[in-house]
Amino acid sequence: TLVGFHCHIGSQIFEHAPFSDAAKIMLAFIATVQEETGVLVEMLNLGGGIGVRYIEEHPQLDLDTIFGAIKTEVDAFCHVNNLKAPTILFEMGRYVSANAGLTLYTVGSFKTITGYKSYVSIDGGMTDNPRYALYQSPYTALIADRAGDEKSVVATIAGRCCESGDLIQEEAPLQPCKKGDTLAVLVTGAYNYAMASNYNRLPRPPIVSICDGIDRVVVRRESYEDLIKNEMQLSTEKV
Q1: Are the beta carbons of 65 and 20 closer than 8 angstroms?
Q2: For the chain, which domains are there?
Q3: Which run of H or E residues covers position 29?
Q4: What is the mean pLDDT of residues 157-175?
């Protein structure tokens, strides 16, 4: 039984207009389907794409305002076209989970190449967060135990994979740091673990949940044994 239709127009959308435009295109399609088949479409899923505030330049969204504006335009379109307004759905996965997570790294070193740039090396990288390497996703980073201090340093955060693209962020404002400091990258609750890999034979880090002041490991740290468990020993016997 046909209940509804789904569309998805993109990601990191911070205003209502693109969703309203998509809704009107889909509603026109729904009107055609109903006219030609007699099927009453009850739901329209506009997919995901609601913007997440990774950096200060990203706006803080007011969802009531955005969804209210979309509803107003949907209702107006349906009224003009004598169409019963379907239930409008959104997929809020990234919006819900992104801000729920952050990633902690240990600083390995800090160095400045005179006349070029400064680097912070960390004990993670593109294996646990490939998003910057893939499509230059922006992030906010800070030194965890001095989070309130002024960010007086600009540095590129480099991983340990020995790849030129193994970066978490370029030209990132940071507090001064040294070996052993904890560097936090914020808003990593969406996609990071799902996209993580064992590239260069690096084990994936654990995930720790904190709720009401209580912490517990919900995904354990991988071990060397985990990395080789699927490998078969060579046999001297003929097959």
Answers
A1: no
A2: 4-97 (3.20.20.10), 101-227 (2.40.37.10)
A3: helix 17-37
A4: 96
Cβ atoms of residues 160 and 125 within 8 Å: yes
Residues 136-145: what's their mean pLDDT?
Answer: 97
- Residue range 100-128: mean pLDDT, rounded: 97
pLDDT, average across residues 77-82:
94
**For 176-191, what is each residue's pLDDT tens digit?**
999 999 999 999 999 9
By the 10 Å C-beta count (0-12 exposed, 13-18 middle, 19+ buried), 141 is classed as buried
CB atoms within 10 A of CB 163: 14
Give 136's contacts (C-beta < 8 A, 6+ positions apart). none
Which residues belong to the active site?
162
In this structure, what are the phi and psi dihedrals at residue 75, rounded to the nearest 5 degrees? -60, -40
How high is the pLDDT of residue 84?
93
Tell me, letter by letter, the H, E, C secondary structure of 38-107.
CCCCCEEECCCCECCCCCCCCCCCCHHHHHHHHHHHHHHHHHHCCCCCCEEECCCHHHHHHHHCEEEEEE
Q: What angle do CA 105, 108, 112 make, to 5 degrees?
A: 115
